[in-house]
Amino acid sequence: MFNERFYLDTIIKIFSSILYEQKLIFISNELGTLTRLINTFICLLYPFSWPHTYIPILPALMLDIIQAPTPYIIGILRSCESYLSRNEEFLSQDNSDILIVDIDHDRIRSLNDYLSNQSYRGSAENLNRHFLQFQILPKIFKIELKQEISLLRKNKLNLSMDDCRQRLQNLFMSIFIQSCYNYKDYLNATFDIDLFVQSKQHTIELFLEWFTRTQMFELFIREKLDSNLKNSFAITFDSACEKYRRTLKKQIPQRITVKSVKRKAAIRANKQDNRI
């Protein structure tokens, strides 16, 4: 489960950055907090998986891996933080694509802002201006995530840790279900990305235009095209997609809007309150 002091916007920014296959360095004073949070985000990618370097806790002797040119998710203890500001070879490179997630202080910043110790407010403005991934996730998904995570936090005392974890995973998987539920219609000998994207409403189309070209999505399709895996890989996701498709067929077609998402979330919240 996410740290209680984590703002919802921070959670969504981290999730968006992972989908964008960004270089991410998580920093914390505590080993347990560091590994637990990173593993949580990795689990929330289902049915997709992180196809790049992934090291929940990077030993001090291996810090040079941070200089890798490819995307990564890496965790380091704050005791190793000095490497970021004192290694001349590292500082001489273009590190503008590296994001620092300071778990202990609920902050996500570019490496340059982090090293220059720029005010967090100014850093946040720079992030929103220069890092496209924060704008990629459709607004309707952001609203749904914020409302459902808030509801989960409100009711967590009435739920077991396993229940909280499962509901959180289902929540994030619902984003992929809503956007990709009909992907099999375009999956034959190859996958027709263009037709798949064009089949979506505009609010989701822009997101998929970008997401379908990530290595994360390509790996998913490649595994689905593998004759040895297609019937066993991501079957939970496929079942959920079929269930969602049947639900859509029963409903009167309507345009997905921010207002409709808020209304559905409010209905779910009322149902949760009635159960408790």
TrEMBL record:
- Signal peptide from the UniProt entry: none
Describe the location of the UDENN domain by residue ranges.
1-231
Please give the superkingdom of this protein's source. Answer: Eukaryota
Official protein name in the record = UDENN domain-containing protein
Write down the PANTHER family for this protein, in alphabetical order.
Answer: DENN DOMAIN-CONTAINING PROTEIN 2, UDENN DOMAIN-CONTAINING PROTEIN
Q: Which residue stretches, if any, does this entry annotate as coiled coil?
A: none
Q: Which SMART domains match?
A: DENN (SM00799)
